Amino acid sequence: MMQTLASAQPDILQKLIFGDVPAASEAAAWSDGLFLMITWFSIFFFVLLMSLMVYFTIKYRRRPGVPAEPSPHHNLLLEIFWTVVPSSSMLVMFILGFQGYTSKVVSPDSAMELKIQGSKWSWIATYPNGATSPETQALSRVVDNENHVVTEGKQYPIFYVPENTDIKLRMMSTDVIHSFWIPDYRTKMDVIPNRYTGFGFSTPILTPNDTYVHQETGQVMPGRDMWVFCAEYCGDDHSRMAATIRVVPRELYDQKMADWSVKLDPIDAGMKIWTQLCKTCHETNGTRLVGPTWNSVKNADGQFGFGYEALLEDGSSVMRDANYYRESILDPNAKIVKGFAPAMPSYQGQLSEEDIDNIIAFIQSVSDRNPNAGEDSESSDAGETEGETEEAEAGSDS
Ligand code: HEC
Ligand SMILES: [Cu+2]
């Protein structure tokens, strides 16, 4: 199904609307196909209805001396026709659109998680190992007579991602509402304070045509640059709240990660907070203390761990994802795990956003559904194969 829409021939409308920004993935091509389908559908009916209207206006216009034609007031066949055709067309659009939407919002479990922070007026990306990219570039590269790079103006951050990989974004804003938009992927998502949002995308396999010019050295390198914009009007410098996503070969990505490796790994930093503040009530080995254990186990008390559903006191259940953990830390009584007392103090105001990120990284690391497993391991190959099998499985399901 995905294939058919994706491989639609580029028609005039497509060239007119999407210009030279090719869809970077199958999911993005799906959006293009659907968008064009709906546009052509609308054009067809617009032309049909307007022509009929003009035709009838002329044909049945009032003429002196000619009595008005009596108009029929009911035609069952016609009414069924113009009820069923539009509503079933809408239903088809809805189903196709919903499929496209879920393929972007739900990413495979093995997807690499990239954290995005939006603030007035810049984007920061944090990699699974806790590093943030120090590299930036200006809009264009300018050199003087002596071949020195003299590019001036705003510097935009560059986010490196490996080719042929599923990426999942976990985003939050420190101030107002922003919107993370990657035109190449035809996807944008609001980035808001105090709650994580996100979407996923898979990076393309690079071809020999995919190159970029390194701004400092002028070297032509294998890779593919894609723009990121803020799509929510967020103040003065909104129009320049941009960044570059640079898809590069795996080796280059791994090398960048090694070069930028940081002070303290987020998991280690999270473990430190756990030992200091949480360990009296939370174990990570399956033992029940005052609070539930954090690792993924199923025992008489229920199922625990990141990525598993939590059964709550009020009988409902909730997926243990990053938003759930965040809320459990800041507002512990909002959701009480079944079989436990509401005995946990709130850490609102005591832990920074970074602390919370680190604790969540630690909690993820003790679950067998850790989204970043394989990312921080020595062999990056393991992570890649895992991603491929996952994709293959997903493909054979549909
Ligand atoms: C005084 C004991 C106590 C301390 C200290 C404590 N908690 Fe809790 N925590 C609990 C209890 C009891 C529950 C279960 C009831 C509930 O859901 O609020 C819980 C539940 C949780 C949950 C939900 C667990 C799940 O599996 O669904 C998370 C997450 C959590 N705590 C995080 C923390 C973090 C992070 C810290 C340290 C910064 C911490 N807690 C410190 C007692 C504590
Ligand atoms: Cu913004």
Describe this structure in a few short sentences.
This protein is α+β, with helices and mostly antiparallel strands and 398 residues long.
Features:
disordered N terminus, four-stranded mixed β-sheet, binds copper (II) ion, 16 strands, 3 domains, binds heme C, Helix Hairpins, 35% helix, six-stranded mixed β-sheet, alpha+beta, 398 residues, Cytochrome Bc1 Complex, Chain D, domain 2, disordered C terminus, Immunoglobulin-like
Model description:
The structure is a single chain. Strand 15 (309-311) and strand 16 (317-319) form a beta hairpin. With 398 residues, this protein is of the alpha+beta class. The longest helix has 34 residues, at 26-59. Helix 3 (26-59) runs antiparallel to helix 4. The chain has 3 domains: 2-105, Helix Hairpins, CATH 1.10.287; 112-263, Immunoglobulin-like (Sandwich), CATH 2.60.40.420; 266-375, Cytochrome c-like domain (Cytochrome Bc1 Complex, Chain D, domain 2), CATH 1.10.760. The chain has 9 helices and 16 strands. Copper (II) ion (CU) is lined by residues 118, 121, 178, 230, 232, 234, 238, 241.
